Amino acid sequence: MAAAMASAAERAVLEEEFKWLLQEEVHGVLRQLQDILKEASHRFALPVGGTEGPIKQENFMLGTSSTDQVKGVLMLQGDALCQADINLKMPRNNQLLHFTFREDKQWKLQQIQDARNHVNQAIYLLTNRDINYQFKTGSEVLKLMDAVMLQLTRARNRLTTPATLTLPEIASSGLTKMFTPALPSDILVNFYINLNKLCLTVYQLHALQPNSTKNFRPTGGSILHNPGAMFECGSQRYEVSHVHKVECVVPWLNDALVFFTVSLQLCQQLKDKVRGLLAGDSLCFKRVSDLLKWMT
């Protein structure tokens, strides 16, 4: 009987702890998450003088490539490249080419836009309830944390995992029409985000002659294509002769990735605590039930 009473007391303690968790600690964690993710969302918007202010423009100097063939400056405004000023030295004759975005053009970086949308969806999930709302079950909390973590994981993945593109997709992306003067037919460019870096890849192409004896094998999708990759655009076949990749660090993207990591850790810690109390309560109930069966 004493053992049964002790187990019943243990269960009562667990129930009180679980009640406190649902009524107090969960809401404290949710407030923390809201504060962190609002900071992350502000990083993407980069407002000036308030959340509704204009988005400021930032200039980034592209790091030199290994062969120093590509140099330039990119102007980023939120999720859009509003200007690109690029110098390209052609390896065959050392000719220097200079390109800039046309004044009427901007290039949307879909990765940044998608990541911010996922952050805002996570904030919506955290705030979409009455201020006095009380959680009633642990499974309700777990379900919310899973939904928030899904959005945060998707936001992080959009920055850490650039989409793979085939060379024909890059050629038809519209970037070739962004520049003045127009890019030569033997030049392709691609912009993308990788972690906290804004990257530019320049592909120099060699047109394959119709009577070429080379075994033509079209390349598949990739983030970065290597020299020797082949593709067909229209009726012309090309081979990549040179690849130049340059990049620059965007500090606020690094901040956002840190916020994602901290938020995911907070979500996981809360899930672990809820599951631990649920498991303890279940074990305690089993011990009481077993003792009562033994006594009868």
From TrEMBL:
Source superkingdom: Eukaryota
Listed Pfam families: Rogdi_lz
Main location: cytoplasm
Cell location: Cytoplasmic vesicle, Secretory vesicle, Synaptic vesicle
Cellular component terms (Gene Ontology): RAVE complex; synaptic vesicle
Transmembrane segments annotated in the record for this chain: none
InterPro entries documented for this protein: RAVE2/Rogdi
Family: Belongs to the rogdi family.
Name recorded for this polypeptide: Protein rogdi homolog
Originating organism: Pelusios castaneus
